[in-house]
Amino acid sequence: MNSYLTRLYSMAQQPSRRIVGLMSGTSLDGLDVALCRLHGHGTATRLELEHFATVPYSNEVRRRIREVFAGGQVSLEYLTLLHPWLGLLHGDMILQCLQEWQVAPAAVDLVASHGQTVYHAPQHQHQHPDFPLNATLQLGDGDHVSVRTGIITLSDFRQKHIAAGGEGAPLAAYGDYLLLSSTEEERLLLNLGGIANFTYLPRAGQDASAAFSTDTGPGNTLLDATVRAHHPMLAYDEDGRLASAGQVHAGLLTELLAHPFFAAPLPKTTGPELFGPAYLRSAQERSDTLTLGLADTLATLTELSAVGVAQAARQVFGSEPALAVYASGGGAHNPALQAALRRQLPACRFATTQQLGVLPDAKEAILFALLANEAVAGQPVSLGAGRQRVPAVSMGKISLPG
């Protein structure tokens, strides 16, 4: 038997596995690298986060990714070259982190690589008559990651979800359910990345068919793009200071919320392909706010993110949801966005996932490590029901170093 297959077989029977989880989101700020020790599998999974770092992308890396990011027309040659190049870059970033942490690559069982999403195309969004299906594309070839690091790598997680009838996102429901369910309270795990999404978790032990994940609309993607358009040297509105100095423009907010995505049934997925600068400009034209100041524009976009979350919560839980909400992602550090969420959902109790023992910035990287752990050692779990059903599949393509 192939020695790597022998190792996989042995690894599946170990009491724990050491896995590097990787995540690079639509904000393009860098690569999150989480070295996790995962004990057991399924609902008995126990996490130890040994190390975590965000390796920042240089301006040149961001420029290269933005050449193809959420674009309708791109160079096929450039896209083809970027796929292995990002795999090698991510492999080098893993090795850099392991060296800093004084961990030998041979001491790591698996890498779980999400890759870099460059286009997300659920059917309801692309509406292409020749392709009645969902699709998504992540770059950063898993074979290049595996050969570069010498570590067995699982990658391209979203394709199996789509193949089994899902939309490929959000995938957080699996990890959130296995790791963060509670017997004491219903929970909303709110991820405020480039796109905002949440996972609803009923009390542990109750019917898992009630659990589900959904996108709710833009999180930070429009905020960051708007800041960059006005101040190219700034990546984002640090601590929401610019937004806090502005006023919400009711007319612009109304036009932004007029998009049919916000009234669509749950669960649903979206991306910066929809919520990009063209979407904002169209709403500004309709509301006669093209000359609105930066602070007021950011205040309105911050309110949009909060309203998107609140409307989705009300669709499921009624007019006054009263849930324990635990935030993660970049928006968890934005006081302006947090204040807007509290205004929109006054009966909810807000905290970050730090209170649950999960570092908010590391959460998504951890969740992909958990998906890899389940693919190797666990059994597929089905969550939700009807449109909210998450298929029971093992996700991640396996790449061997040799």
TrEMBL record:
Enzyme class: transferase
Transmembrane annotation, as ranges: none
Keywords: ATP-binding, Carbohydrate metabolism, Kinase, Nucleotide-binding, Transferase
GO annotation (BP), single: peptidoglycan turnover
One term of GO molecular function: kinase activity
Catalysed reaction, written as an equation: 1,6-anhydro-N-acetyl-beta-muramate + ATP + H2O = N-acetyl-D-muramate 6-phosphate + ADP + H(+)
Pathway field: Amino-sugar metabolism; 1,6-anhydro-N-acetylmuramate degradation; Cell wall biogenesis; peptidoglycan recycling
Binding residues for ATP: G25, T26, S27, L28, D29, G30, L31, D32
Database matches in Pfam families: AnmK
EC number(s) stated in the UniProt entry for this protein: 2.7.1.170
Gene3D superfamilies cross-referenced by the UniProt entry: 3.30.420.40
InterPro entries the record matches: Anhydro_N_Ac-Mur_kinase (IPR005338), ATPase_NBD (IPR043129)
Its job: Catalyzes the specific phosphorylation of 1,6-anhydro-N-acetylmuramic acid (anhMurNAc) with the simultaneous cleavage of the 1,6-anhydro ring, generating MurNAc-6-P. Is required for the utilization of anhMurNAc either imported from the medium or derived from its own cell wall murein, and thus plays a role in cell wall recycling.
Family under the similarity heading: Belongs to the anhydro-N-acetylmuramic acid kinase family.
Record's protein name: Anhydro-N-acetylmuramic acid kinase
